[in-house]
Design goal:
Blueprint: H1 6-15, H2 35-42, H3 46-64, H4 70-84, H5 89-124, H6 136-147, H7 149-169, H8 181-184, H9 189-203, H10 207-214, H11 223-235, H12 237-253, H13 259-269, E1 274-278, E2 284-288, H14 300-314, H15 329-347, H16 352-362, H17 368-374, H18 385-400, H19 406-422, H20 427-433, H21 438-458, H22 462-471, H23 476-491, H24 495-509, H25 517-530, H26 535-550, E3 561-567, E4 572-578, H27 584-594, H28 596-604, H29 609-624
Antiparallel strand pairs: 1-2, 3-4
Amino acid sequence: MKRTSRLAALSLAALLCPVSSAAQTSAPPAGKLPAKARRVAADPLAETRRANAVALVTSLADEARGYKDETLRARVQSRAANALWEMDAEKSRALFRRAWDAADSADRESQRRTEEERQRQRQAGGPMVWRSGPDLRGEVLRLAARRDRALGEEFLARLDDARKQQERDALTPAKTEAPKATELMGDDPAQGQRLSLARQLLEAGDAARARQFAEPALQSVTDGSLRFLVALRQTAPADADKLYAAMLARAAADPGSDANTVSRLMSYVFTPQLFINIDRGGGYGISNTGEHKAPDGMPDALRRAFLQTAAAVLVRPLPPPDQDRSTSGRLGAYFMIARLLPLFEQHLSAAVPPLRAQLAALSPDATQTFRSQIENLLTSGLVPEEQRQRDDVQNALDKLSRASTPNERDGFLMDAAFAAAAKGDPRAREFAERVSDPDARAQLLTYIDYDAVSRALAKKDAEEAVRLARKGELTSLQRVWALTEAAKLFAKDDRGRSLELLDEAAAESRRIDEADSDRARATLAVITPLFELDQSRVWSLMPELVKTINALPGYTGEGGHINVTFRTRSRASMRSGNVETFNLQPIFESLAREDMNRAVEFARTLSGDAPRAVATLAIASAVLNDGAKPKPRT
């Protein structure tokens, strides 16, 4: 028997109840009324809809306690808590705490699966690439902390206690191994959550609370702490510079500071948003989250203070290799000195001789293979990207002329293709087509075509995006995404062309297997922008969407993203981005603003707990945020 949600059935009945006569009485001028009374005056049904939205969320929160899926339980209860906060803060706190417990359990399981995948790839050899699972504790924390700082601190303390317990329990030999470069990119979980929350508060304009949350984590030199300071400097440069100067002083006095410490500190004064970490084996990890040109207005004294700290760390006596316990080792120190030498020559020439002597002492450890691997990294963020990209293409082509085996030839062609794609050079496709390995060639062409479409859309060049979508080696989901994003660009000035592209995307979406979740995502990508152009058509398409979703047992209704992966035994790269229109929330918010009753009816017909919960929360959110319109009279 098909299961019907109790909350949706009850709420629908409530929605159809008559409005009380009190809502229809005359009122004073709207400008002199409180907010609630103004809503009633403007729309007599508004408070009824808001009351029904609260009933929807309350029933959903109660239902969520019985969900077996801990990810869903955590998300529904935390979002319900956030929605209900102004009506019942105590109930919301209880919901937040239940959500945290579910999130903690789900995150542990996700981390276990991720570690299994990393081990599998490590054993298989070659470069590693994977998508991490959702950060559920982070989701709960961010919602709770915005409502109640004390509750946010409570969750952060729990996270820190859990980390300490894991460290006490994890006494296996694997834990004593030196961390890999990719593992060095992450912060301690509790500190990472604290800093992520602080950055979000900063983005929301709440710098004071952002600093309060961040300061305990600023005692350590991590990627996250430097990212926060870089972000803080955009709005409060003097405060950020002061915090950074204190961080420099601690690093200089810390015997554990090493080349990776220097690399992170360097980002603040020379290459914001770019982080490079080298492990003891010579592997490296790169995190590049935005433009990383030298920041404007950086005081010379602060740059000089960084260089003095860097020199003091990098010229420390070298322990024997078997006694080196630093994260970077001798190869990391070699890389960092070589990378910084031009800056020392420019800003602090007195430090150059001892650094050159240290570099010479480390040279025997740096094999030719290692030096070739780090050649491009040495100037990353320090030399204009256009020049670096031009040089990278030519360097790869120069090496190609000296290739002695098919594998070497393919490798240099891949390097040339990636370098050309990075600067929008049309030769990228030509290089990719010359790769002899058929699997690598197919992956590379898809990667390059996806990259080209992304660039066209970023430039708002809809015609070029459409051209590339039609001729490129894209998956069906990638093609639907490209066509629908182009349709949005045409919507304002050329409604007919926009509708034409959405029809083309709809036809492409039907080529996706009905058992594939991408079929639902592609359908959503079509009907969500279509709502602004032809609402009646979207309402008529909703039964088809519901049927598609109900045929997909594992579909959740969210987490929509677009990605492209390239992976061979010697190279790996992944690009991924969130696509809001792949999710259920936007379309159900739009439906609710037009007709809440009909939107609830469609939400009720979704058979899965997850999509029904997402749709229900979207409807309630649209109404509680005062976005709902009166139901059209017929």
